[in-house]
Design brief:
Strand 1, helix 2 (33-46) and strand 2 (55-59) form a beta-alpha-beta unit. By secondary structure, this protein is α/β, with parallel strands linked by helices. The protein has helices spanning 11-22, 33-46, 72-89, 103-116, 163-171, 194-210, 235-256, and strands at residues 25-30, 55-59, 93-99, 130-135, 144-149, 178-182, 214-220, 261-270, 273-279. The protein has a 5-stranded mixed beta sheet. Strands 2-1-3-4 form a 4-stranded parallel beta sheet, with helices on both faces. 38% of the residues lie in helices and 21% in strands. The radius of gyration is 18 Å and the shape is globular. The chain has a domain at 140-279: Carbonic anhydrase (Beta-carbonic Anhydrase, Chain A, 3-Layer(aba) Sandwich), CATH 3.40.1050. It binds zinc ion. Zinc ion is lined by residues 149, 151, 184, 220, 223-225.
Length: 280
Amino acid sequence: MTMRSTTAPSPRTIAEEQHAKSCQTTIITSGQGFHLRHASLLAYAKQPGYAGRFDLLTVLCDPQKLATPLGHDLLTQLVADAMLALDAHQGEQILVAVPGDPTAVVEAFRRQFLQDISSYRKPINPNTPIIGLSLDEAPEPSESVVIACMEPRQWDQANTAPFLDQLVKVYGLDAHPDVLAMPGGARDVEGKMKRSALTIAQLQARHVERNWQRIILTCHEDCAVFGGNAAFHGPQDQRNKLTDRLKISRKVLQERFPRRALETAIVSIEGGKIAGIVHL
Ligand SMILES: [Zn+2]
């Protein structure tokens, strides 16, 4: 684990340090809830002493597509997001967990990673291990999709009520909802960034197969993509601004997914883990 400066840290730096201690892994996997549960259990079982937290990045298409020219835009975005996760949380390894043989996807990811590493804004370890894991095929597809942040405090196996289970309970979802996990969650759905276009394209392509009935958009408190708690004038200001962002994202998706239930929520974070889900 990389050590930071020994000068007096700011409160934000202390929070980052706490993260860094238990988030050495970035998991890249399919957006099927069944797969991300399986991937997190494999990661948990694979590493003695692993704290059960990880940055989570998912794709809604078949992850094997990432190894083909058709998946290139998505692959480059995933590589950029993985570098962001490694950088933000001092990550030490990347697990690529896909149904079937992970070899081709791992190799495609590694090539892109090594190609893009020099243009990332901070130094990234080119020898970061990129490990492939093979997942079982998923059972029945879900009728719902959740858009959420990659945030490790949400994907905490050690927590007695992991995020996915809380979502299932709060919203009455089937056991394995689809999940699109990326930095900032539903924050950038409306933006002009490449990520926004990719998000909408992924949702639309998967919706053709899934015919989702419910789309749940979430952001969480103390999100590094927003600048953390320190970026707001107190809890109420943070809640208001997250609510505003979610309303915009919801409006954009409502135009593309008419007659579907679009719901929004803020994930409340306290003491390094989820304190609750505030259904707006
Ligand atoms: Zn976040």
